[in-house]
Amino acid sequence: MKKLLIGILIIVLLYAMGGLIYFFIHKKTPLPEEKPIADIKGYPYHLKANATELMKNEFHLLKDNLEGKEIDDEAYAESVAKLFIIDLYTITNKLNKYDVGGVQYVVPAILDNFKLNVKDTIYKYVEDNSDDKRVQTLPEVSQINTTSIEAAEYTIDENTYQGYKISLEWSYVKDLGYDETGELRVVKIDQYYYVAEKK
Q: Over the stretch 96-109, which tens digit does the pLDDT of each residue have?
C-alpha cells in the first residue's frame, strides 16, 4: 500500500513539474509598457515611440485638427481611418502577434473581437521579437490615400451613430500580398471617432 501511495505521489509531482515547465516555456511574452511620444489633449489617441514616419505625419495632422480653433469633422474621421490602416498593416514594428495595431482607433465595444480576429488572421504567423533577433519579412505601409468619403449612419447594438464611409488604398515598402484597399465605417461616439467596421 505504501509503494502504491508513493508511486501516485511521484506521478502527481512529475505532472506538476511538467505543467510548470510548459507554462514557463510557452507563456506569451508580455508587451512592454511604452510611454507615448505624443498625445492629443482631451482625446484617447497617442503616438508610440515605434511609429513610422507615415504614422507620425498623419498623427500630427490629426493633432493639429483636434487642437485647432475649429475641428473639421470629415478630416478628423479620415485621419482616424488612415491611422487605423497604417498601424494595423505596419507589422514590422510589432513585438509579436499579440501586439495588434490600430486598437486605439476601434470602437471599444468591439475591441476584444477585433483583436482576436486579427491575431487569428493577419498576425497569425508573426514571429516573436522580444529578443530583437527576428529576421521575418513583415509589411510596412509606405503610402495611403482616400479614394472616397461620404457621410453615413451605422448601427451598433441597436444604437445608430453618425459617421462616414471611407474608402482607402495603400501601398507597402515591399509587396508581400497583404490588403491594399478597404472600406471603413468610422462613427462618432460621444465626441470621438472610431472605426466600427472594415470591409
A: 999 999 999 999 98
Contact call for residues 124 and 97 (beta carbons, < 8 A):
yes
The 3 state secondary structure assigned to 37-59 is: CEECCCCCCEECCCCCHHHHHHH
Asked whether 29 and 96 are in contact (CB, 8 A), the reply is yes
Provide the CA 15 distance to its chain's centre, in angstroms: 37
Q: Which fold has domain 38-198?
A: Nuclear Transport Factor 2; Chain: A, (3.10.450)
Q: Which amino acid is at 37?
A: I
Q: Residue 74 has which C-alpha cell? A: 470629415
Output the pTM of the full model.
0.81
